[in-house]
Amino acid sequence: MAFLRTKSLFVSGITAVFCGLLLLGCQKAGKRKSFWGGKDDTKEPVTVPAAFTADSARQLALKLDSVFKYFHKRRGFNGTVLVTKYDQVIYKGAFGMADFYKRDSLTVETAFQLASVSKQFTAMAIMMLKEDGELTYEDSVQQYIPDFPYHGITIRQLLTHQSGLSNYTYFSDKLWPDRQKNLTNQDVINLMVAHQPKPYYRPNTRFDYSNTGYSLLASIVEKVAEQPFADFLRERIFEPLEMTRTFTYSPDVATLTGKIATGHTRFRQKRTSDYLDTVLGDKGIYSTVEDLYKWDQALYTQKLVSKETLQEAFTGYRPEKKKDEDYGFGWRIRPIENGDTIVYHGGLWHGFSSYMLRHPKEHSTLIVLSNLPNGSFSYLQEIRKFLYPAHPDSAAHTTGPGIAARTKR
Questions:
Q1: Which residues are catalytic?
Q2: Number of Cβ atoms within 10 Å of the Cβ of 268
Q3: HSE of 115 in the Cβ direction (CA atoms, 13 Å)?
């Protein structure tokens, strides 16, 4: 009888432990599953003016095609572009070569390194964990990286470029001993702990654009989510949004299938990767204009985070107010000529240039990716004024003198 009683207690204990583990696993799976289409994917409405018709959209597409052909022939633009108005893709195109040596032509399915446009995805990862209840924006870096030597820096200050930390791409050049060995996010932290490079400013005193801050945010995501940053992005953002041609950089990127652009110098010489490419968070995402359109459309829903949480990303936080621009969480914010506000970000890294602009009021987007940074992006302000003219009644279906001259060629 004693044996049977002991056996019964043992079995009951094992069952309790098993059920506890199963419940914990279900809770974790349930939380993650909620981001796999479990949130509201209803798109917020947008008012389409009567002047925007199928015919006006076709006319705009023809003008854009003429303009980008001009920029390709006369200014050396080499890349892909996608333009939307009121949630509709008005124009997309590809110009030039994915690899000048191999003579591979670009297509809209070609993936480019996004450079600093990657930062908005890092910010989204942090916002998702905040909604999970796993962190707050006022948490200190030490809560997740205990030996971090700089005190008084919060997650919010990393997001808004107010940490004052020195740039890892500069101090690593002096402190990393073997340039043939890839630098990781943890290596950046280790260098900061061991050498404590002097900050540029005290935290929360001014805006100072910081790649270091966003690499630290990626490390915080890894600590909180207990998985590699690349896996978090894939499972929580890319796969739910069906961004099938979007991925993060790894040393094996050359072995990946699919169309991938090669970065070039302004003289069309191939750029090679180096030890800095393996640091993620501030850069490192590859994507296509079509996948970025999926990302843009998701930001008009609550599929990833709530509307209230997302609005914080588009709210300016600069302590010193610059007249024409502010910064939120991974997005630059500025008023445009017609009085509306746009959010945008650009990027430049190892032969790639990227640019994504969103006009939330009219659900429009301008996405431009290039693998030849020859200064041809200088025309983007002109394109912006063309798409969003000072007098909305004239709409982007009429043109300013510069654009009009090119559309006649």
A1: 116
A2: 16
A3: 18
